Fold:
Amino acid sequence: MRLGKKEIEAHNEAIFDAHHRRYAFAKQTMANAEAVVAKLMAFQVAIPSWALGTGGTRFGRFSGPGEPGSLEQKLDDVGLLHALNASSGAISLHIPWDIPKDHAAIRHQAAELCIAFDAVNSNTFQDQPGQPYSYKFGSLQHVDRAVRRQAVAHNIEVIRHGVELGSRSLTVWLSDGSCFPGQLNFRKAFQHTLEGLGEIYAALPDDWKVFVEYKAFEPNFYSMTVGDWGQSLLYASKLGEKAYTLVDLGHHLPNANIEQIVALLLMEGKLGGFHFNDSKYGDDDLTAGSIRPYQLFLIFKELIEGMDARGMDHAHGLGWMIDASHNVKDPMEDLLQSVEALMLAYAQALCVDHAALAAAQQANDAVAAQEQLQDAFRTDLRPLLAEARLRAGAALDPVRCFRDLRVREALVKERGHATVATGL
Ligand SMILES: [Mn+2]
Structure:
């Protein structure tokens, strides 16, 4: 299914007057409204191929109707999202859940939908059918060299798929670690992992990056071999200039100051990618901005400040991706909400008066500093987001448009009720 520009335009027509009034007011009250709209139009967030199906927990998974049953259908879904919000112009593939059978055909389909290929993701946290060695006790950290070799070979295969598609980065998330004290020799686990990552690094094309993603706990509950940003930075620093740390918002211990982590990683030139989600307890994988929108804004404020300090382009300087799971929502509606929350936090960050904030900091004026931040956070910037979408030919209100145009119903008609997305 494809959405035509005319259908979206007709939908916008009905709510255009109300939007026009709201945007005119925003423009009157904000000096930089037009500049923010231009930046919003350039900013794209990648959709992971696994997020297009209904997610699950270790207790169960309740599939939704009309889920994409193939990589081609997942690409179509990202195309629909991008048609609705003009901000989802990239897909991040997970191998082996989404191995392209015909790279040229997939590349062609993506080009038709204006979708780029973001980072490719490897998987050594599950055993695949026919695989000689098990990852039950880890992959790159494993005590057995043969298991480590298998994990390295898999990552190199993932790079090969990425090269065929035009991807430029590999994300490695390892579930390696231990569940019990004494189970693992920490130093050997680190050294084995570093050695394996080094072999993967050596296979990277010249213009590629590798992102080392960390996670504090789960599936291992005593130690994780890439457990926090310090460990990830250690690997990335030892590997070389093509290796970076990847921050996933859900992969920290409760109450971690993620904005501070981001600021320091950016300062060191070692932040490469970002996975967005939200959580109340741990790696909840909830819709970005649904629980702690102020934290999301503070993170974006550090991202913008840090990127500007290094002269980085906001849209392409880092890999932006959603990494969420949707147990009770329609995955596509959830992704539209996540992208909206990210664009809003980005816009709020663009509205921070950095000079005034710096002056408040210099004067040790905590009150003035808070006023600056909360003024940006509390300004309603939704009309700017809608204006950016309107100018790009997308929907003024993507979720409402998705529902009004009965997109899910059309997908169910096309794919059937009992489809199950691969991988989850
Ligand atoms: Mn992640």
Observations:
- The chain has a mean pLDDT of 96.
- The CA atoms of residues 68 and 256 lie 36 Å apart.
- The pocket of manganese (II) ion is lined by residues 173, 213, 248, 275, 323 (CB under 6 Å).
- The longest helix spans residues 5-29.
